[in-house]
Amino acid sequence: MSELKILVVDDELDERTWMTAFFEDNGYATDSAVDGEEGLAKARAGGVDLITLDITMDNQSGVKMFKNLQDTPETTGIPVIMVTGVAKEFRSFIERTRQVKNPDGYFEKPVDQDALLTRVRELIG
């Protein structure tokens, strides 16, 4: 059986480093991207089982990438967990908007590691 791969999309190097190490320590393969544009390209290339996605990033925001993932046939089925420092009001906005479906998970930074890992395992094993 092949290793499940998580794509970590975050513009902050410390967050990308922490998240990739965390997932790798828990048995997942990882890749990372610095913005939504790079993240979408890597997701479209295939082999990604789940994406963690920051909301506020330069070049292309996480919200734009999330919408693009849903509009692209080869990526629409990939589970997405939003991991962000943005306030709860933004979560309410995402959940109310009709332009995108709700993400498969939502975690505020600093992330509750146990809860994040539990949600990842629920989504992809």
Keyphrases for this structure?
alpha/beta, globular, 125 residues, 5 helices, 5-stranded parallel sheet
Structure description:
The protein is of the alpha/beta class. The protein has one domain: Response regulator (Rossmann fold, 3-Layer(aba) Sandwich). Helix content is 43%, strand content 18%. It has 5 helices and 5 strands. The chain has helices at residues 13-25, 36-45, 62-71, 88-96, 113-124, and strands at 5-9, 29-33, 50-53, 80-84, 105-108. The chain has a 5-stranded parallel beta sheet, with helices on both faces. Strand 4 (80-84), helix 4 and strand 5 (105-108) form a beta-alpha-beta unit. Helix 2 packs parallel to helix 3. The chain is globular, with a radius of gyration of 13 Å. The two termini are 12 Å apart. The relative contact order is 0.17. The model has no long low-confidence stretch (mean pLDDT 89).
Beta strand count: 5
Order of SSEs:
EHEHEHEHEH
Mean pLDDT: 89
Poorly predicted runs of 5 or more residues: none
The strand order across the widest sheet is 2-1-3-4-5
In CATH, the homologous superfamily goes by the name: Response regulator
Cα-atom radius of gyration: 13 Å
From the helix content, strand content and strand pairing, which structural class follows? alpha/beta
The CATH topology annotation reads as Rossmann fold
